[in-house]
Amino acid sequence: MNVEELVRDTLREQAAEQPSAGPGFADRVLAVRRRRRTRRLAAVAAATAAVVAVAVTVPLLDSGKSDVRPAGVVQQNGITGHPDQSPPRLLVAAGQTALAAYYTWRTVPQTDDRGIGVRTYWLLDPGTGTYVKDSRWSFVAVAPGLRTAAVLEQNLPVRRIGLLDLATRKVERWIPVEHRVGALAFSYDGTRLLATTYDENPDVRAKAQNDKGGWDWGPAFATSSRTGFYDLGVASGKGSWTGVVSDRNDIARGDFSFSRTGDQVYARVIGDRDGTQQFYDLDGAKIAAPADEKYLRADVDARLSPNGRLAALGLTKEVAPGKSYSSIRDPRTGKEITKVRGGDLLAWADDRRLIAWERASGLDEPYRARLVLVTIGSDKIVPLSGVQKDMYDELKAWQPVFARR
Amino acid sequence: MDAELQESFREFVDGRSSALLKTAVLLTGGDRHAAEDLLQNALIKAAGRWQRIDEPEAYVRQVLYRQQISRWRLKWRRRELSVPEPPEARAAPDTTSAADLRLVLRAALSRLTARQRTVLVLRYFEDLPEADVARLLGCSVGTVRSTTHRSLARLRTLAPELAALAPAPGREQPPSRDYSPVEVRP
Questions:
Q1: How far apart are the first and last CA of chain A?
Q2: Which residues of A are less than 8 Å from B89 in CB distance?
Q3: Please, which of A230, B58, B128, B177 could form a disulfide with B132 given CB 3.0 to 4.6 Å?
Q4: Where in chain B are the domains?
Q5: What average pLDDT is seen over chain A?
């Protein structure tokens, strides 16, 4: 074999590995084209208006401050944001990550002071780039690629897992399970599905006194009914169940997630600090954290960067409304490498950019945030969503679910 | 673009976008997101002329190739060369099995310039003769020939593991020094 033949083989092999462009690519192209044309026309109109304003009177120069982009759309370098929409109605995405779904909470009372939290999901329709309400599901995990979601029906825990085609909204396959499931998570590569099993509904809520002297529904701090996990192959639907003994450090909803490699699982537990995580091997035994995940926090969802070299950690300072910083650390040593804008790092868009919540309300006001794109080494942010109306009101606050595109 | 044209555009994209995306990924050196952007821009350009295009696929491919090269030439968007994997992460296996060599070569391909990679994709993935490559890229056959030669030489430099391979049959050894494009009429 010579170099030319090897180049030929290598290119063909690389091409053959590429997944298809996915449904809705044509619509995406047409939508971007429409937006660009609108922007061009708006720019021409704004330029004309500016010329007229100058000709008429000097004070009207202020009109030049207006942004020529269509209101509420950010579209640049793979970033799609809608800073006027909360919750989003149209696709929010940056780099390799998209907002695949979001959900709101409501509590269904069981007694005077106890209830069950129920999620209502809005799932991304990949064809139209819109979020569509789908009340059938109590729990949704979206696989990388945004084509498939794993879903659980209402009244957790349940005895079957659905694999939903996001384009058609039809369940392509049901996976029946013996142990009842209350949570789902895909492996990083999307080939395996981790299903956490519970004996009782893990979303128990209790009434708690709020700051204003009234009562709100909140987490019940109930004991864990978690029993273990299923490790299932997504293609085959087959796998095995592993029992994990709960102890007093386990929280009511202590869902398992795969580590980056998929060789271990972890769950959030009660510990010395917020976001403490406990790792387990695939036989259910407690183990130490893998070397590059031991400094991560279970309550900072972004975790490791795509190349695995950076770890997203928690809030370090809030200097003003809309200006907070989180820590980026070396995953092996735990040492801070830099700080990045954003109060709560949710997902990596690529190896330098992350999607985060950034506070929009004053420091002495109730916390209200919006989704933003932050960049390591830059103080600039790009708003991706509108500001949450009330993050303490479970009916109004929406919770994002991200997946790689 | 009226409804009928939009329908025909959608039909084309649905049928051909996966194949076009494969080419775009190769042109961007394995960067899937850059490839999607590249293809999206080419398709937007095609959509603007849809009524007047006789051979959509040929048109879109030509836009892909030329856009990729001009993107590199103008250092569009970013100044640094973006590669999907950091150079130090490049695999350097001890073995020289075909699979290992392909991995090594893939990393080396991602470090070529866009122009070099585009010429190799056209010559060895699309299997186009030099004259067709020259026509597509708007340059001379001599430039295609010299760029191909230089690209293969650069691959050998980037991936010393390729030294074990035989030279191409019926071809002379690559020259030891770099040389400028020369107009050569076939």
A1: 37
A2: 307
A3: B128
A4: 1-82, 87-164
A5: 86
Exposure letters A69-85 (e unless 16+ CB within 10 A, then b): beeebbbeebbbbbbeb
Question: Residues A84, A378: contact at Cβ < 8 Å?
Answer: no
Contact residues on chain A for B30, CB-CB shorter than 8 A: 14
B86/A307 CB distance under 8 A: yes
Q: Does A169 touch chain B (CB under 8 A)?
A: no
Determine contact, residues A126/A146, Cβ cutoff 8 Å.
yes
CB pair distance less than 8 Å for B26 and A11:
yes
What structural domains does chain A harbor? 3-65 (no CATH), 74-404 (2.120.10)
Report d(CA B41, CA A269) in Å as an integer: 47
CATH of B87-164, one of 3.40.50.1460, 1.10.760.10, 1.10.10.10, 3.30.1840.10: 1.10.10.10
**Tokens found for residue A182:** 């209350």
The reply to whether A377 touches chain B by the CB within 8 Å rule is no
Prediction pTM value: 0.58
Interchain CB distance below 8 Å, A15 and B106: no
Q: Are B107 and B93 in contact (CB under 8 A)?
A: no
Q: How many Å apart are CA A122 and CA A45, to the nearest integer?
A: 36
Q: Whole-angstrom Cα distance, residue A262 to residue A281?
A: 10
Instruction: State residue B92's pLDDT score.
Output: 44
Q: Any idea what the Cα angle at residue A203 is, between residues A202 and A208, rounded to 5°?
A: 130
Per-residue pLDDT reduced to its tens digit, A5-62: 899 989 988 888 877 776 678 888 888 888 777 766 666 555 545 444 433 333 333 3
- At A319, give phi and psi (nearest 5°): -95, -25
Locate A254 and state its tokens.
């202590």
For residue B48, give the H/E element and its range: helix B32-48
Question: What is the chain B residue with the closest CA to A19?
Answer: B18
